[in-house]
User: What shape does this take?
Amino acid sequence: MAWAALSILTPPPDPLSATDHTFVAVSKGEVGARVALNTVAEWSPVPVGANLAAGVVTQVIVAAGDEVSQGALLYRVNQRPVVIAQGSVPMFRSIGRDAEGVDVAQLQEMLTAAGFYRGAVDGRARSGTVAAVNAWQKSLGVAPSGVVEAADVIFVPSLPTRVSLDEKVIARGLSVAGGEQVVRGLPASPEFTIPATDSQAAMMPTGTRVEITSPEGAVWEGFAVDQTRDNESATVTVHLAGAAGASICGDACAQVPVTGQAHLSSQVVTVEPVVGLVVPSAALVSGADGQISVIDESGERMPVTVVAAARGMSVIEGVADGTRVRVPANGTTP
Assistant: This one.
């Protein structure tokens, strides 16, 4: 019974004095954290134009990802050229003398851009339009007829634009019947995503910065904007965008192959780098009032503010550079 009373009356040992410790100097440094993952860059082309020619593809001129403008030659069918032009109305008929309509105005705009037509873009095919068509056909190596066949032009919503052709349909030696969707337009930028596990995705909340190494070795900067989860595969896709919604790859998006996926080495910045006075996080102690402190060589608690922490190190404010502070010798928090 006496032993029990003695145990109750004896104060517990001071955990600070009972803990083996050493001292380290507060020093200038940088604290941050990042995780190496792969970013997937992939174009998502959309159909913008249909082929109306019938016959055998004898030549393909445009390569995937090429930027095309008014009157650009795309391919040839039975040696007859097929060109691209801008217009909201698709080509649906032959256009010759006295034809009228929006499609005629679109043709006039293309002929104007190509330097063959100088008249009014009024949607009426008069002698000036017919003469321009003849000159244009001659420049393409086609016998001048003054009539643009429906299969000669593919109107797309906007130009200039980067395009790709459906290689399963438009390839040298293949036969086409007309009506095939063959011209696909590329958006201004490919999509950038990071496939991740649940734990990895948890480190990438909205706004997380990602440094992406481009195919040519430059660094592109993206930010996490959204996440989607596939419950079947238990994987999360983290979607990225550029700063303020801008393109991640800027004017260098042509580096990303138009077909397939490009896997790009990336650094996910889970803790942004902070420069300041650094101590091991194990040097930090918390008082009953929640105040974070460090303990100097004299045993005095010195209140500090933690600015950043990562990988066992913390940037603090409230002590001078060079101050020696106590750290548990076993690496646990004192």
